[in-house]
Specification:
Length: 310
């Protein structure tokens, strides 16, 4: 549901900015579009995955164009990429949201479910080969997700901050800023990226919900009913007038808080030889993963401390 709030609101904003459709009707259209994408699942997961991959490719290409127009200074990008800094609670909130938007804990369950029975290794050599391809798959997916998030930040910094447009705090403001700083075409490409991202990610969120429900409460809900249920919070957010950009950020922070609940059990299982056999995680990999998980948990706790006690 947290994923859906972000993606449906994002797609609704895309429709609103591109075609002037009011936000609530635009959210209904976005929900209908996600229904159509999920219908591909009836024809097999490969077609559904292909459709989502095409949408993800559209997002990547769109932000590639934005970076081309922004022409950021490579030295500045490198210095801030490897030496990050915080400037108050709001920057911590945004950082936490970026982590949630990149990792997306519910996809840990979905990816496992989609791949575990697709090709079953008959012996250990085949299982190792399958695992090798799965690693490549995950690295590509995470690289694309990270590249898109990085491109958004670099584009905003290069066009708005450097250009003196420091008062932009909403997606609508970013759209208008692109119109004034670059061109109508740049703003249109930004809107298309919002739309494609919303359709792709909301479908992924709905499928992940089914996987989690089947695994933990052993219940199956028809996919279209499930889609309607997960769509409801996003519609409520827009109906009661919550600022769309604020809803987007908070929903991604919620996802970040969900990461430990997916990641820690995964790491505990993957380090058990009685479960994994010869494919158990080596000690050095488990150590690195636990350190990274600890950093995410520490960031979440620090954010809570700053918000409620800072």
């Amino acid at each position: 549901m947290a994923c859906d709030v972000a993606e449906v609101v994002g797609a609704a904003l895309g429709l609103n900015l591109l075609f002037g459709i009011p936000l609530f009707p635009a959210a209904l259209i976005a929900g209908a579009g996600a229904f159509a994408i999920l219908a591909l699942q009836q024809m097999g997961f490969r077609r559904l995955e292909a459709g989502i991959a095409v949408l993800a490719g559209v997002v990547l290409v769109c932000f590639g164009f934005e970076i081309f127009w922004a022409k950021p200074d490579a030295a500045d990008v490198g210095s801030h990429l490897f030496v990050p800094g915080f400037s108050g609670t709001e920057s911590i909130l945004l950082t936490t949201g970026i982590i949630g938007a990149t990792v997306m804990p519910h996809v840990v369950y979905l990816h496992s479910a989609l791949t575990q029975r697709r090709i079953v290794g008959r012996n250990m050599d085949e299982r190792r080969r399958i695992l090798r391809f799965e690693k490549i798959d995950v690295v590509i997916a995470m690289t694309i997700a990270g590249a898109v998030n990085l491109a958004m930040m670099v584009m905003a910094a290069a066009l708005f901050h450097v250009g003196g447009l420091t008062g932009i705090e909403t997606i609508e403001g970013a759209f208008q800023g692109l119109q004034s700083a670059v061109s109508d075409n740049a703003a249109t490409v930004f809107g298309i990226a919002l739309l494609a991202s919303g359709f792709a990610s909301s479908s992924v969120g709905t499928m992940a919900g089914q996987v989690v429900m089947q695994g933990f409460i052993r219940r199956r809900i028809p996919i279209f009913l499930r889609r309607a249920l997960t769509l409801a919070p996003a519609l409520i957010v827009l109906a009661i007038g919550i600022a769309p950009t604020d809803a987007l950020v908070i929903s991604q922070v919620v996802l970040s808080f969900g990461i430990p609940f997916a990641l820690i059990p995964l790491l505990l299982i993957a380090r058990k030889r009685e479960v994994m056999g010869p494919m158990v995680n080596p000690g050095w990999l488990s150590a690195i993963a636990f350190v990274l998980a600890g950093l995410i948990i520490a960031l979440n706790l620090f954010l809570l401390q700053q918000v409620f006690f800072g």
